[in-house]
Amino acid sequence: MRLGTQPRQRLTLVVACTAQVMMVLDVMIVSVALPSLQRELHLSPAGLEWVVSAYALTLAALIPTGGALGDHLGRKRVFMSGVALFMLASVGCALSVSGGMLIGFRVIQGIGGAVMSSLTLSLITEAYPPEARTGPIGLWAAVSGLAVAGGSVVGGLLLSVFPWSSIFWVNVPIAVVTLVISWFAVVESREPVPRPFDTAGVALSVSGLLFLTFGFVYSSDATWHSPIVAAGVAVLVVFFVWERRAAFPMVPPALLRTPSFGRACAVYLLAYLAFSGFIYYVTLFFQNVDGWSALRTGLSWLFFCIPYFAVAQLSKRVERWLPVASAVGWGCLIAAAGVFGMSQLTTATPFAWPAACYVLVGVGFALMVPAGSSAAMAEVPEGSSGIGSGLFNACRQIGTATGLAILGSIGAGVTLADWHHQAGSLPQAEQQRAAQIGADVAGGQVHLAAAHADQHALDLAVAAFLRGFELALLLAGAILAAAGVVGFLGLRHLQSPASQQRQRADVSTSR
What digits encode the pLDDT tens for the residues 46-81? Predict the structure, then answer.
């Protein structure tokens, strides 16, 4: 079947968007299902974090490799292979009977997702000329908000009727549609003279990220002094030294010399580092502490998703009103205000407060994501769209994996310390039982305190969890504010495409 240029472009955009839907949908459905997984599979706080982090870490570590594979072997072929593996791993997740089995299939799912995700922006970049990319990239970003809404609501609906395994089956029909459209519509592309693989660089980056994330996640069940964290930092230092000396480094030097790319990646990493902790703690608070159902929790995310989708759809107009640096910077600061507000939640807070905070976070990310994505790809050297797209998406997953590990570790550590301190006020007979459920309290399962002790113990458990919750979200807000500063200062040299066209027109007229 032959298709014209415009139909191919539109269907390629559909493919990139459906792949993005799968990625975001999976994250949000799993986030809403965390308390169900916690109860059904008897997961500790560290096990619960690994359900998210094992997937995100694999994505982060292998996305650059996926981009390089696309440049070598063909972007369409590699993309479709990733979609197929993601679909099969989702089936494995749905059939898992233990926490370890689920985490193992999440790793495989992450491998497929890394290959798939690394090439979504590259497919758009190859299908559209530079002057026509802003709209498609804005739609690609807006679809993320729609997927967040769909993931939250669909996850809540599924969990209110079916067991937790249903949250993974939803990926299968989306993957099948994506594969069929890709087969007919996406044009194969690759680099004529691809760069050699940096095998040592890939191994060092994967090992460093694994050690770093494992160290922080492990500290959720132990103390926050794991030597594995130091080992991870050391390996990553060796990775950066290697990249400077390697003949063919994993990251092309020309890409590193592109200021907008590196700074947009830094903003993206910091923003999603904060956002992963936000999703994790807000979900545990609403379902475990405040007693909401999964459906109500999912529906509450509509106050994030609707503003996100509405504002992201206006990305073309925003680029005329705001410079890239302002859109990215103000987006991060607005989102930070929402996260700061959410940190003050208690069980007595009326819903209008978190609803307003959701709106702020949604508007902020809707400004930041399309502008940041365009900034990252604006000056990518010709022939590096695959690795550039892969690295940019990797920053999101690195932020998600390490952010959840770091913020989850800090929050759990504060909660555990406060719980053990407060448990000293309980009767002697109950103090030992209180010590045994410290990990459950750190994971938000505060009602176990009443089951093992009394109502007073429940109040103490809620107070302990809220202290960790508050500190984790305050740190998340501070990280978003820092990302905003990077956006304001680091991207101020960029002009919007509209400004560039006006400048070119003025030059032509003057001639």
Answer: 777 778 778 877 876 777 677 677 777 778 888 889
CA distances from 88 to 10, 94, 113, 183 (A): 27, 10, 11, 18
CB 55 within 8 A of CB 217: no
| Residue in 450, 356, 465 with CA at minimum distance from that of residue 408 | 465
Q: What pTM, to 2 d.p., does this model score?
A: 0.75
Q: Which of 482, 468, 476, 355 is nearest to 419 (CA)?
A: 468
Cβ-Cβ contacts under 8 Å for 169 (sequence gap 6 or more): 90, 91, 94
CB-CB contact of 423 with 433 (8 Å): no
d(CA 400, CA 422): 32
Q: Which tokens hold the place of 172?
A: 């299968």
Give Cα separations from 384 to 197, 490, 502 (angstroms): 14, 21, 27
- What's the rounded Cα separation, in Å, for the pair 315 and 369? 10
Angle formed at CA 304 by CA 274 and CA 20, multiple of 5 degrees: 75
In order of 70, 85, 104, 446, 506, the CA distances from 89 in angstroms are 21, 6, 9, 33, 54
CB 155 within 8 A of CB 28: yes
- Distance, CA of 371 to CA of 138 (rounded, Å): 8
For 209-242, the pLDDT digits (tens) are 777 767 766 655 544 456 777 788 898 889 888 8
